[in-house]
Amino acid sequence: MPRLTLPTADGNLEDYETGAPLGFANGNGVPFPRIAYSAVHVVSDPLADNDPWLEPAIDWDATLAFRRHVWGLGLGVAEAMDTAQRGMGLDWHQSIELIRRSVDAARDFSDGQNGGALLASGAGTDHLEAGPATTIDDVISAYEEQCQAVEGAGGRIILMASRALAAVARGPEDYATVYGRILDQVREPVIIHWLGEMFDPALAGYWGHADHRAAMDVCLKVMDANAAKIDGIKISLLNADHERAMRRRLPAGVRMYTGDDFNYPDLIAGDEDGHSDALLGIFDAIAPAASAALGAMARQDMAAYHAILAPTVPLSRHIFQAPTRFYKTGIVFMAYLNGHQDHFTMVGGQESARSTVHLADLFRLADRAGLLAEPERACRRMSAVLATRGVEA
User: Do 80 and 160 form a contact (C-beta atoms < 8 A)?
Assistant: First the structure.
């Protein structure tokens, strides 16, 4: 097997030999027993003459090709979410263009087995910059604008958490007012996304409480009052106990979509009180394994399901380690190593957000999980990135 030189945490270098990739079976053959969305990344155009910190430059062909890759594995696509660097390099203008292109691509895609190309897209308020004069009505108007745009493009809505709402809300009542107004207007049931402060510090205290349990009570009251307009809720709190507690209290017919990139295998598998569906950023990086695991679950082979996903958890916990908001760097690096893009250039220059040692450990963990599809190519690309950071064999 191919070898390369990797840095270690103690400042030294080691000779590392890769293992053999696992031959993940494409689960896209029988309907999955869980709905499974992958929140997917965007591919930057490395040759664009732009200022990366100020102006995003998207490689549309490569970006849409990755979505087709995900659909081809039987997974759904969660578009224009935080994995796509929403609010961290990708603005609303680019996001709605991305959504329109993905909706068009989904219409042309007929190879998926779980009802074709499953797609849902983020609608939020990120074009509204909250200031001292911003009001709750301004937040409602911003939500309305984006929801109408997503629906106008033919898309299904994921109602994203709002930094502006977190900034101007005076208490839980303001959250109930905003969500009630928006949910009353949407055409089809939406997925609500509660993104924790570990993913975005600006969302601390969401639902009017710093304590997640108290915030959960507020969120559940909003869902109880608007259950007919809610398909489900994705919570990203990285706390399995919180998710299970909330899952048991959901209104009838409302799904729990796990956003827990630390504990997803058990949450998706479920327990005597129910299970979670999935809307996960890590499913971008481990899409072949996720598809194979869900295929095993469809065959009622839970031993195989857990055997496939267990080695991916250390990788996911590494990619999503604090500061969690920089996980996008690891997601895109995995796509580069596996040939889904021919460079490691990110929107907003976010390729610099993780250390060289972090990327080297990611490589090791991906290799141990059997997720490096072509180890020789992955070694060449890892070595090329290391050379730009001063590590040469």
Answer: no
Q: pLDDT for 96-110, tens place per residue?
A: 999 999 999 998 875
CA dist 266 and 277 (Å) reads: 11
Residue 303 neighbours by CB under 8 Å, 6+ apart: none
Contacts of 324 (CB under 8 A, 6+ apart): 198, 199, 238
| Tens-digit pLDDT profile for residues 249-270 | 999 999 999 999 999 999 999 9
Residue type, 255: R
| Residue type, position 44, single letter | S
| pTM reported for the whole predicted model | 0.96
**What is the Cα–Cα distance from 187 to 11, expressed in whole angstroms?**
56
- Count how many residues are written for the chain: 393
pLDDT digits (tens, 9 = 90+) for 320-356: 999 999 999 999 999 999 999 999 999 999 999 999 9
Question: Domain residues of the chain, as ranges?
Answer: 33-327
Domain boundaries 33-327, corresponding CATH code: 3.20.20.70
Token pair for residue 335?
């796509």
| Euclidean distance between CA atoms 245 and 272, whole angstroms | 13
CA atoms within a 13 Å half-sphere pointing along the CA-CB vector of 370? 15
Here the tokens at position 361 are 């450990």
Residue type, position 14, single letter: E
Question: Rounded to an integer, what distance in angstroms lies between the CA atom of residue 304 and that of residue 290?
Answer: 12
Output the six-digit token pair for 49.
Answer: 């003459």
152: buried, middle or exposed (CB in 10 Å: 19+, 13-18, 0-12)? exposed
